[in-house]
Structure prediction request, 668 residues.
Amino acid sequence: MRLNIFGTGLVADFGSTDELVRHVEHSHCSGTLPRAPEANTSPLSERYSPRELRRLDHFTRMCLLAAHRALDEAALAPNEDMAIVLASGYGPAHTTFDYLDSIINFGEAGASPTAFSHSVHNIPAATIALMLRLSCPSMSLCQSDGPVWSGLAASWTWLAEGRARRVLFIAADERTPLLEDVLSRMRPGCLPCEGATAFILGAGNEAGRADLELEVVPEPDFPVVDLRGSYGVSPVSAAFDLAVAFAMTRKTAQAVLVHEDGRVPRNMLMVP
Amino acid sequence: MMPALPVAVTGVGCVSAAGADLASCLDALFSDQGGPAPPTRFPCRQPLTLPVFEVPEAWSAPYAEDGLTASAALLLRAADEALRRSGPQSIVGKRVGVIIGTTTGASLDFLDCYRNWRVGDEPDIAAIRRYGRSNPAAMLARRLGLNGPALTLTNACSSGTDAIGLGAAWIRQGLCHTVLAGGADALNEITYNGFARLMVASPEPCRPFDIERAGLNLGEGAAVLVLEAEDDVRREQACGYILGYGTCGDAHHLTAPHPKARGLRRALQDCLDQSGIQAGDVGFVNVHGTATAHNDAVEGPLLAEMLPEVPISATKGFTGHALGAAGAVEAAFVLGCLSRGELPPSRGFRMGDPAVKAEPVRGRTRVDARNAISLSLAFGGLNAALAFGRGESPCV
Prediction:
C-alpha cells in the first residue's frame, strides 16, 4: 500500500514540525521538548473571523489549523475531489466532558443539547468540511490501538478505489485533566501531549513530495524516527513522527522508518 | 465511481429489540410485532418519558463480562451468529480485517467516574480499562485472534453502513481475504438525555415518513456481516452480495440535512454507479426513516426523484434508531428481505406527508428483487448508501 504525500501540517503543545525537526537535528531525539499548556491555534484568526470560529472547540481548531498548513504546503485548494479522514484515540474529549458537566451541573433536564451534538465523534470532521466548503466523503475513526495506520489504510482504500483523488488525513488527540490524571496513575512518569497532524495524500502513483509505504519489513539500515520520549504520550504520536520523517526525507533524500505500536505493530516507510 | 466487483456475504448476525438473532428479528418484522417502552436500565429525568427499544439483557448476557461494555457484548453476540453461518473456513488461515461502526461504543461516557473525580475522588480505573478493552473493532479482533487491520468507525448514525462499505473495499483492494463488518451500540442515559434535549425524540412510537411523525425512538443492537471475495466462495455459500457503496457529507449544517439532499444525492449516485445498477432496476430501498421532521423531508423527495416507483421499507418502527448499529442492522434486514422476496410492514406509518413525496409500504409486500439499496443519514450531514445483491442461499 503506497501513498503519495503532498504536504503536512502539525499543531501541537510542543509547537510544529519545525520544533520536532530541530529537536532531531540538534538533540538527536534525546530530552523532552518544552510544552505549552495547550496547542496554539491562534493563527486561525488570520483565516477566519471571530464569528466563524466562535463555536469551534479546541480539538477541531487544532485539526483545522493542521489541515490549512498541509494544504498550504501542498499548494492545494480544497476541492470536491478530496475526502476527509480523521483518526483519533479518544475523539473530541473536551466536548464530551463539557456535555457531562452540563448533566452534572444542571441535571438531565438541563443538559446542553449543543454540547451533546458537538461531542459526537464525527462533528470535528464535519466542521472541517463546512469550514473548507467541502461536500465530500468523510470518515472518522476512534481507537487507541493503531489509529494512525488505520486511518492511513482507510485513506489508501478510498484513493485506490477512486472515491477521491486526494485525502485530507488528520490524526488528533487532546489533553484533558481526567485523562491526564488517569495516565499518571496507570503509567507513572508518562506525560500526555496533544496535537493534530494533517497530510494531503494521493494514490501512490503520482509524483508527490514523498511516498509512504504502509507495510514494510524494516531493514537494519533504515534511519528510524522515534520521538516518543520527546513530546509525551499520545495515541496519535506516530503521526508526529511521520511529519518529521516527511521533512527529513525531503532534506536528506533518505528513506526514514516510522513505527506505530499496537496489537499488530506497524512499520511505515517514508521514501523520498 | 467506476463499477466494482461484488463482494460476497457469507454470514450475517443481528441482535436488536426485534429479536435475538436475524431469524427472530425477521419473524418480528413480518408478524408486525414490537414497540418501544420506557427505559428500564436508567432513570428518565426528562419532562417527558421518551420510549426506547431496549434489547433484553438476557440476549447479550452470555457474552457479557465485567471487563466489557454493553456494546461489546451485543457485538460479540452478532459476530458469533455471523461466523456460525459463514463457517470457520472464512477466517482460519486468512488475513481477516474488522471494521465496526459505533457511537456509544467509543465515547468517553464515564458519567459516574467523571462525577466522582470532579469532587476529588480518585478516578475509577476499572471504568477506564473497560472502555479501553471494549473498543469494538480492536476487541473483536483480539478476541478472535485476527491478524488483519481493525478499525472502529465513528460516523455517528451512518457508521454501520460506512463500515460495510469500507469492508467491501478492503476485500476488493486485496487488503484482506475476509472482513467482519458491522455496527454495535448500546443505549445509555447519556445518549438518551442528549437526544431528549435536542428535542428530536418522540414520546410516542415513531412514525417514519408519516404526516404526523414527531421524532425518533432510540434503540440499540448490533449486526455483523462476514464479507469475502466472490471468487473465494462457492455460489451456494453466499447469502447476499455487497454491490456498491456511496458516501458524501453535505457541508451544510452539523445537525440538520441539506434541504436539497446535496450529499445524499451524490452518495446514492456513487453507490448506483459502483454497483452498476440502474435506478429503474432497484428492487427496493430501506430508508433511514428516523421519523424526524428534517430527515424524512429530505430523504423522501430525493427518492421520489431518483428512485421513483421503487418500493420503500422503513424498519425503525421495529428497532428504534440504533445509532452506530442502525446501518448494519438494516443491512441484515435488507439481506433477509432479499432472501424472502418480501418486505415487512413499515410499522408506524399510517398516512403520507405530501412534503415527503414518498410513502413506505404499509403491509407485507411481495417483491421479486435481485438487489436493494439501504440509506443512512448522520449527524454532521453525512450520508451513506449501500447496494445489495440477492444471494443463492438464505441468510437464515
Q: What stands out?
A: The mean pLDDT of chain A is 93. The two ends of chain A are 16 Å apart (CA to CA). Chain A has ten helices and nine strands.
